[in-house]
């Protein structure tokens, strides 16, 4: 019995010694991190200097209180204006599950030693000044679920090894200086829900098997130099609610009959590419669609009236294409859009629209905030009923063939910031009611056939 008691005492003593050693190691790692923080203007780390406080009580530090008591499990010091670098000693915090240091002024590299944090689930270093490459051995953090290194100055290629992070749910690398291609291995991360690689200098094609990311809800690849033909796999995400591949060099036609594959889609952006062909009617089957951005492409033909079947549509941008409308049937899409009671943005500028402006232009949603039809060849007159758009902030119709007078009801659009009607064939007097537009900061009426004097009430305008 005595021997057993002695053995148990020795075991307890060894366990206590190991715990004390681990606690000392964790504290030393935190102190090392603090030593490379050169500026703490908000005093966020003041408690770290209090020697009477256990490190688990320091600001931003959380420790385990169960199986491994007093081991550091999270370091959360975001949005504190901290200046400094990332100490490799943080890799000694082997029980770390969470590091959040976003929205600070941290520079230098992401230490490759972080690859030793096998329990790490969340690494968020967004919106700092980090440079260098993404260390490939970060992929040794096999428990990672959230990797956010966006809005930094990281360079080099996206490591192909990222495909090993099979538990990753969110990957955000946007707004860096990354080059190369999107690694094909990324499609192996089938747990991904959110993928954002936008605002880099990525080239090459979007992986043709990207639809293997069956759980993907958010896909943001805009503002890169991606090329290749627009693939049907981009429209094969049953959980996707947001896809943006705008401002790239994608070409070809939008694949047909894909509407039923996007049952949850709310925002679809294909703007600023080299897409051609007609706007597909199947978009009307994307019943939850709220925003559709197809501007700055090479789309041709008539705008499908079926778009008016989208009950939630609030944003429709079709400008800078080669779309046509001349006859009443061509303009049927505008009549159909009167069914979209949530429509706020309608952008039709820089196309080949001709013929008379339909009266339905005044029957759109009263929630309209932006209406642009400039740089076309639209004729006819502006209906008096346009005055019902009391929420309108921008009305751009310059460089068309619009005739008649400016309706006095335009003076009721008291939310207007921009009003541009120049380069048309307006006649008559400029209505004095425009003096009611006290929020205007841009007014352009030149290049018309107005008569009479400038209304004296315009002295109240702040333009």
What would you say this structure looks like, in words?
It comes from Dioscorea zingiberensis. Keywords: Glycoprotein, Leucine-rich repeat, Membrane, Repeat, Signal, Transmembrane, Transmembrane helix. One of its GO terms (biological process) is response to other organism. This is Leucine-rich repeat-containing N-terminal plant-type domain-containing protein. InterPro entries: Leu-rich_rpt, Leu-rich_rpt_typical-subtyp, LRR-RLK, LRR_dom_sf, LRR_N_plant-typ, LRR_R13L4/SHOC2-like. With 463 residues, the chain is mainly beta. 8% of the residues lie in helices and 22% in strands. The chain has two helices and 31 strands. The chain has helices at 2-35, 332-336; strands spanning 37-39, 61-63, 72-76, 83-85, 98-100, 105-108, 122-124, 129-130, 146-148, 170-172, 194-196, 218-220, 227-229, 242-244, 249-253, 267-269, 274-277, 291-293, 298-302, 315-317, 322-325, 345-347, 352-356, 370-372, 377-379, 394-396, 403-404, 418-420, 425-429, 442-444, 449-451. It has a 17-stranded mixed sheet, with no helix packed on it. Strands 13-15-17-19-21-23-25 form a seven-stranded parallel sheet, with no helix packed on it. A four-stranded mixed sheet has the order 1-4-6-8. A hairpin with an 8-residue loop joins strand 2 (61-63) and strand 3. The longest helix is centred in the first third of the chain and has 34 residues, at 2-35. The chain is elongated. Mean pLDDT is 93; it is low at 4-21.
